[in-house]
Amino acid sequence: MGLCIGYESSLRYWLTKTGDEVLPEIATAGAFRQAEATSTLVKEGALPFGPEQGRTLHLVVSDPALKHRVRDCRVHVCEGPLPDGSFCQLPGSNLVASPALTFLELAQTHSLWELVEIGNYLCSTFSISDEGRGYTGKRAQVAAPEQLSRYLSELPPYTRGVRRAQQALEHVTELTASPKESQLAMHYHLPVELGGRGPFEIVANQAIRIDEHGQRLLASGHLVGDLFLPDFGCDLEFDSIEFHTGRFRLDHTQARRNVLEAMGIKTVSATEGQINTIEKLDDFTWLLEERLGIPHPAYSREQRIAQIDLFDWLNDPQRTLF
């Protein structure tokens, strides 16, 4: 017998994985049926984290008979059949819901905006802190949109959360490399009826081959665009203070832009100071539209309210993902 963590707790597990941590193996099909939720098992530990004051530990069992009242824990019952690969093995007999199952679980209770952001983070290449926000370093993807989509397609269509998860997945941008890139992707990939300014097709961290002159300048055979807009041949860059200050970094950043422009790829760079208020984001978007050579749309009152609400929600400094 062991414990199985899911919902916000499994999201916490996956999003805080660091680059040097090995991802767990897929659990056998019958392992989840052995999972139980008892105070004794929780006290024994062996989980990556336990219940904390003000932070509930979410556990999952397969049968109501295995559900017990556990202090500072919320126990969920999942009685329906689940596809293979729904759980991963933790030390001992403990389990964690896979990224795909976690996405489905959270689709049952979270808004579309929240679910798109969760999808972005699960499919990203960075980890966040145990506080549920911020950037802590690079890591490999723990999921890809194709994996999430395939998992959802294997479930009965009436399964709770499937339709919302599929809807959110249409707006997920994979391979973003920072929280700010994910935020910009939401602004420009979401359609106007959902508060966005698109939808623009976006490819995050696109590898771009460069010619021999650019290779000598950058000491590399390719460079990586932050948010590449393939329909316009444009690279939208976010220049953070952490990674774009200092003489060497400034030289490298400018060399990147020069090489991109020489290759006929438009570049538009955003900094925190350019997009930290809704008015500044409006102005930056106007400049981006000018650079792309597209008309400046007129938004309805409802669309404008949705844009303001999305901006305020994304920039709430107290908000956490789990």
Query: What is the rounded distance between the termini?
Result: 27 Å
- Taking all Cα atoms into account, the compactness measure Rg is 22 Å
Largest sheet: 4 strands, mixed
Overall, the morphology is elongated
User: Which sequence of SSEs, written as H and E, runs from N to C?
Assistant: EHHEEEEHHEEHHHEHEEHEHHH
Spatially, the strands of the biggest sheet line up as: 8-9-10-11
User: Low-confidence stretches at least 5 residues in length (pLDDT < 50)?
Assistant: 244-248
Average per-residue pLDDT, rounded, comes to 91
Strand content: 15-25%
How many strands? 11
Which range best describes the helical content: under 10%, 10-25%, 25-40%, 40-55%, 55-70% or over 70%? 25-40%
Contiguous helical run count: 12
Describe the structure.
- The protein is α/β, with parallel strands linked by helices and 322 residues long.
- The protein has twelve helices and eleven strands.
- A four-stranded mixed β-sheet has the order 8-9-10-11, sandwiched between helices. A three-stranded mixed β-sheet has the order 1-5-4.
- The chain is elongated.
- About 2% of the residues have low confidence.
What's the structural blueprint in terms of helices and strands?
Layout: E1 4-5, H1 7-15, H2 39-44, E2 57-61, E3 73-77, E4 87-89, E5 95-97, H3 99-107, H4 112-122, E6 126-127, E7 137-138, H5 145-153, H6 162-169, H7 179-189, E8 203-209, H8 212-218, E9 222-229, E10 234-239, H9 247-262, E11 266-271, H10 272-275, H11 278-292, H12 301-314
Parallel strand pairs: 1-5, 2-3, 10-11
Antiparallel strand pairs: 4-5, 6-7, 8-9, 9-10
Helix pairs in contact: 1-3, 3-4, 3-5, 4-6, 4-7, 5-6, 8-9
